[in-house]
Write a structure and sequence with these properties.
This protein is α/β, with parallel strands linked by helices and 336 residues long. The chain contains 11 helices and 16 strands. The strands form 4 sheets. A 7-stranded mixed β-sheet has the order 6-5-4-7-10-15-16, with helices on both faces. The two termini are 35 Å apart.
Length: 336
């Protein structure tokens, strides 16, 4: 499995361009903050935890003559995608590292590189912890339903929603995954099915419209999804279609779990109604790949995310264990 991000030669950030998968494994070297920002906006780098890592690395390769330079880099990167709270969380950490270095007379560039590496390293550890916490949810010979991509391509490690699946598979458990394609950009088909297949995990691709029928057939032990922001009351923003999946899972008696690192929990946002939802270009819906699939002038509504109410979520699989909705106040208190 190729690494989706790394340090490149000459002080660059090397990314696996996820817009070209699965047809081509193309790596790009980003040498400026603006290039990193464009890569995040265009979804060449995507997934809430990986966006945070990429933004931190972008700050580290940017101008670092003063804290003002770092603040300018953070403003540019912060504007790329509003929903994923990991982005702002990582940028706040980079600003904190810059201010501490300047106050203590340290080398600003070195401090930024160290902090970016720490954010990446911590995410790897959080992914492993999420996987370990979620293992008890997976029975041998079980099948899991997910949506979008919350695996190795979306994080610095083995993923969030897919982390328990990878650990179970590595231990020899018979585990399988149903993967909705995830319109309009097919992150399920292009990315999740690709990485699971590369890892040897049995998976079956379905269209988004087949989710209800698949649940009705039975055999799905649980649904596990990722998250881009979790509000203080447990409402969760994730890829568009997650809310529908949660409603269908509830109707069929299948528990749905949200898997996310501590950095995705946003205690400053009280409910899902306060989460900013990114709206993307109409062309993503009017076209299917490179082929037009709708009249050019038809109006389009294209939110990248929806919000799943906490009442539909059976539990939150975190790097600190599994928490139920009523336990979230204690979880947030532990983050303070």
């Amino acid at each position: 499995m190729p690494c989706p991000i790394d340090w490149g030669p000459g002080g660059s950030v090397r990314i696996l361009d996820q817009t070209r998968l699965p047809a081509e494994e193309h790596f790009a070297e980003l040498r400026t903050v603006a290039q990193v920002a464009q890569a995040i906006t265009a979804l060449r780098v995507r997934g809430a935890p990986l966006i945070g890592i990429a933004a931190a690395m972008g700050v580290a390769i940017g101008p670092a003559r003063s804290v003002a330079d770092v603040e300018a880099s953070c403003r540019l990167l912060r504007a790329t995608r509003p929903t994923a709270v990991n982005l702002g969380w990582a940028l706040d950490r980079m600003l904190g590292a810059a201010r501490a270095a300047e106050a203590n007379g340290g080398a600003l560039a070195a401090a930024l590189r160290t902090e970016a590496d720490a954010i990446w390293t911590e995410d790897v550890a959080m992914c492993e912890a999420i996987g370990a916490a979620g293992l008890p949810l997976l029975a041998d010979a079980g099948e899991v339903l997910t949506i979008c991509n919350a695996g190795r391509l979306a994080t610095g490690g083995i993923g969030t929603a897919l982390a328990p699946i990878y650990l179970a598979h590595g231990r020899g458990q018979r585990i399988a995954v149903s993967v909705p394609e995830t319109r309009p950009l097919l992150q399920g088909a292009r990315l999740t099915a690709w990485e699971l297949s590369r890892a040897g995990v049995p998976c079956t691709l379905i269209t988004d419209g087949m989710i209800a029928s698949r649940l009705a057939r039975g055999g799905i032990a649980c649904a596990i999804v990722g998250a881009d922001r979790i509000a203080a009351n447990g409402d969760t923003a994730n890829k568009i279609g997650t809310y529908g999946l949660a409603l269908l899972a509830k109707a069929h008696g299948v528990p749905l779990y949200v898997a996310a690192p501590s950095s995705t929990f946003d205690g400053a946002t009280p409910t899902g109604g306060a989460i900013p939802i990114e709206e993307r270009a109409a062309g993503e819906v009017r076209a299917f790949g490179a082929s037009s699939s709708a009249p050019a002038g038809v109006p389009v509504w294209n939110p990248a995310f929806d919000v799943t109410p906490a009442a539909l979520i059976a539990g939150y699989v975190t790097d600190r264990g599994i928490y139920r909705r009523e336990e979230l106040p204690a979880f947030f208190a532990g983050l303070a």
